Amino acid sequence: MTDNVNRPARAARAPIVWDIVTSSVLLAVGVVIAGALTVFAFFLVFASDSCGSGGTVCDTGRMGAGFLVALLGPAIVTLAAIVVAIVLMVLRRVSFWIPIAGIVLTVLVWLAGAGLVVSGVPGATF
To answer: How large is the angle between the packed helices 97-119 and 17-42, nearest 10 degrees?
Structure first.
């Protein structure tokens, strides 16, 4: 049996001010980028302009899935980055890298959705 009475208490970590400021600014930038990508997702609808003309048969299921990924994906990734960064800041851990990773993943998710939309149109490229 261990004696917990004589064990010293752990010292509380001091808040990391530079990390909180950097993380907050990067999270705000990530929200702006996610908002812009959400607006850009609506322009992916124009990929279907050639569908039905000249015998072009498009895969509308794939295009619809890609549109949803491009529309909702950035918001979901950004929300997850915000939650994880806040948890790390509350635990007083270094968290500035979370918004950076979130921004990169947000752009990659949008590009994946846009790629799905474009791949549903025969002969279309980025």
So the answer is: 10
Do residues 113 and 67 touch, judged by C-beta distance below 8 A? yes
* 95 in Cβ contact with 23 (< 8 Å): yes
Residue 6 CA from chain centroid, whole number:
47
C-alpha to C-alpha distance for 23 and 93, rounded to whole angstroms: 11
Q: Model's pTM, two decimal places?
A: 0.84
List of the chain residues with pLDDT < 70: 1-9, 11, 126
Residue found under tokens 């970590």: 13
CA distances from 71 to 86, 95, 113, 122 (A): 24, 27, 8, 22
Burial-class residue 15 by CB neighbours within 10 Å (0-12, 13-18, 19+): exposed
3-state secondary structure of 19: helix
